[in-house]
Each structure stands twice: as structure tokens, then as C-alpha cells.
Amino acid sequence: MSTENYLKGRGAQQNTTNKFSEFSYETRDDFLEFCRIEGEDSDNNKTQYIPIFPKTIVNKVTSPDVGMMYSMNPYQGCEHGCIYCYARNAHEFWGYSAGLDFERKILLKKDAPELLEKKLRSKNWKATTIVLSGNTDCYQPAEKKFKITRECLKVFLKYRHPVGIITKNALILRDLDILKELAKDNLIAVNVSVTSLSEETRRILEPRTTTITKRLETIRVLSDNNVPVNAMLAPIIPGINSHEIINLAKAVSENGASSFAFTVVRLNGAIGQIFTDWIKKTLPDRAEKVLHQIQECHGGTLNDSRFGIRSRGEGKIATQIHDLVRIARHTYFKDKSLPKLNMELFEQYRNGQMKLF
């Protein structure tokens, strides 16, 4: 890895221009020289937590590729700093960059539990799985301090409403007490992201996430407590983790995962620039090879927005990935499946307590 001007503990190494803004951000050489002379840091690399106050919290998901109908995000931006994260582009809607701002300016929705309860109590709402989170990780480091996700889980339990969780943080085990109660009525499914079995790969791809050992332990503890787990082996990045598919499937299966899913990486919007800058600084010896292989999966471009294809890829390399996935499923998940969640209890608890018969 080239360490010159490299921001440790971050994924993105720059702030890309926000396409919605008339202004652009540039760190000029004369400013850097001034900081050097004055003995000051040009960038303190600290995380900011910024409260915001949305009017609603549950979002309808219209994409046919995602596999969920509704999601909610207690946080916008994510300190995990995963370099490939598709959610980076969403930060531009808030007036920030998809690069470093996404990792360092974390927007907090402290009213999320109240907004969720209001939604569940609305007359027209019918029980449908709501996923925490469709965009950024609901158990990112901010959750340890603010506990917004935990309070939302209490609302789901109160109303016996089905909920899904997507995370790559072992912090979820802090809430095992609530998860176990939800699992008793088949109201919870957890998706744990495991991108690599190499700690070095994990560290550069996802700098502020929990270790691979801790993630596999998280799958095991959840499964041992009858909380069903789907492993997200995503994204698969040619030349970085594509050779690990079989071993990844074996590891998550042995630790109790009921199923696994995957996507082929795509670098849409500003992520293409952010990823390209990152890989040339982090893995310069194979940067061009990796970028070319990603392009081969998406018709010669890093960005692919076609529904049904964008997350699967096409071409020879994508076909090889799909073949490995089929072998992995046949070998390690042949008789496994994730149970469907219970939609029947919610009507009985809609008013906050079970109806008396």
C-alpha cells in the first residue's frame, strides 16, 4: 500500500464533487503548505454527528433488484467506510460528498422510533417486513452511543411486527435479548455481511467494520439462539475476493447461516471515481486489472444501472462467479433455507396490546 497522503481508518481518500451543488471542494497546495509551516493538520479526520428531523422514516423500495418492499434508516452516512458502498451516492441528496463526507458526517434520526410507531399505528398499514437498513448500517459505530436501532426494535416487538436487519457489525449481539423475543414468534431475520475471510482484505475494503472472526461468531451466536441468519457475501469484486466464494460459503454455513446471497460489485455514480482513486493508492500493483475485470462484468463500464443485470453482471467473469455460487449452494446449503416471517400477529397488537377475545 502507498502510505503517502493516505488517510488511515477511512475508505474514501477524497471528497468528490456533489453533482447537485454548484460548488466544488479542492485542497490546494498553497493551503497544505500553510498548514505545514504553521504545524497544523490540514484535515483532522474526525467524525461529526448531525441530528436531522425527517417527517417519515419508513421508505417504500421500488427497485426490483433489492428484495425488500420497505426499509428504514436510523442513520444516513456510515462510519464503516466500505469503499464500494452503493449508499454513498445518497449522501449527495443531503448536500454532502459521497466520499469522505459519507464516512465523517453521520446524520442521526433520533425521532426514528416515534416515527416508526406512528407508521405502524396508521389505519392503512398492513404487516410487511421492514428492513433495518436498506441504505446504511443500522449497527454502525454511532449506534453504540445513540441506541436508535435498539429503540426501534422495541417498537417492532411491542407491535409484533416482522423486521429484517442488514449489518456487518457484532454490535447487534448487544440486542440479543430483543432479537430472541422477536424470534419466538418468527418476526426477525438477520443478514450479516461477510465480504472476505482475509483480515487484510477486510481492513482495506471496510476499514471501520468488525473483524471477520467476530462476524462469523455473530452468525453462530444468533443461530444458536434461533435467530435465522442469511449471509450477504457481497459484493463480489473480481480480483479481490472473487476467489473466496466457496470458502466464504463454507465458513458461514458451518457457523449456522441458513442461506446466503451475493451481488457482483458495480460502481455507480460517484463511487466509480472514489473506488478508482482508492485502489490506485491501496493496491497499485493490481489496480488496472481489477478495474478492467469490473468493467468486463458491466459491458465495458464501471457503472451499470440496468434492473435485473446491474447486481448480477454479465460476461465471462460474471458467469464464473455465478458458477462458483451454484457449486457453493449445492455443497453447503442444499437442505437449508431462510424461514418466511410471521405477518399474522400484527393486527392483534396494532393498538399496542393484544386484543382480548
From TrEMBL:
Q: Which keywords has UniProt assigned to this entry?
A: Iron, Iron-sulfur, Lyase, Metal-binding
Task: Write down the InterPro entries for this protein, in alphabetical order.
Answer: Elp3/MiaA/NifB-like_rSAM, MJ0683-like, rSAM, rSAM_sf
The record's listing under Pfam families reads: Radical_SAM (PF04055)
The Radical SAM core domain extends over: 61-301
Q: Does Lyase count among this protein's keywords? A: yes
Asked whether the keyword RNA-binding is assigned, the reply is no
The organism sits in which domain of life?
A: Bacteria
Q: Report TM segments.
A: none
| GO terms assigned for molecular function | iron-sulfur cluster binding; lyase activity; metal ion binding
**NCBIfam families recorded:** rSAM_PA0069 (NF033668)
Protein's recorded name: DNA repair photolyase
**The organism of origin for this protein:** Kriegella aquimaris
